[in-house]
Amino acid sequence: MLKELEALQESLKAAIERRVVLRRDYVDMDKQIGQEIKGYLSRIREIEESMLTDIKGQETIDSEIVSMDHNSSVDREDQRNRKSRYDYQQDVVPKVIQILRENGSKLKAKDIFPILKDKYDMEFSNRTITMNRVMALSPEITKEEGYYLLK
């Protein structure tokens, strides 16, 4: 049993030493690859800078293109940053209440949203979020078994 214990300890030491060597090799390889990447990046920067200096004559065309791109990106950014297209308290809640009153006061969201689109030209990207917000703003609208009801 003593011989087996000594053999296991020797095997453990050898495995640990192999692991240390492997880690050193890994670190060295990682450093080499990092240097290679830095070389590629610096060469890419040099080429891009030389291309920019070659294109100086086209600055007016480029500035027009950039301003057009900037305007369209600002428009897209405005659309993304806008919280909501509609004022829920003033616009959406009263219309949903009116739809529920006109149509029997028990409807599914899939029935409510086409009416909002056709009758009021209101479109929403997510029915569930919209209806949850409507219910939070109006305590008289509830949901039971998938149907929206008026109390």
Summarize the structure.
The chain is mainly alpha-helical and 151 residues long. It is built from 5 helices and 3 strands. The chain has helices at 2-54, 59-81, 88-102, 109-120, 127-137; strands spanning 106-107, 141-144, 147-150.
Protein architecture, described:
This protein is mainly alpha-helical and 151 residues long. The protein is 75% helix and 7% strand. It has two domains: 2-80; 88-150, Arc Repressor Mutant, subunit A, CATH 1.10.10. The protein has five helices and three strands; from the N terminus they run αααβααββ. It has a three-stranded antiparallel sheet. Strand 2 (141-144) and strand 3 form a beta hairpin. Helix 3 (88-102) packs across helix 5. It is elongated. The model has no long low-confidence stretch (mean pLDDT 83).
How do the strands and helices of this protein lay out in sequence?
Layout: H1 2-54, H2 59-81, H3 88-102, E1 106-107, H4 109-120, H5 127-137, E2 141-144, E3 147-150
Antiparallel strand pairs: 1-3, 2-3
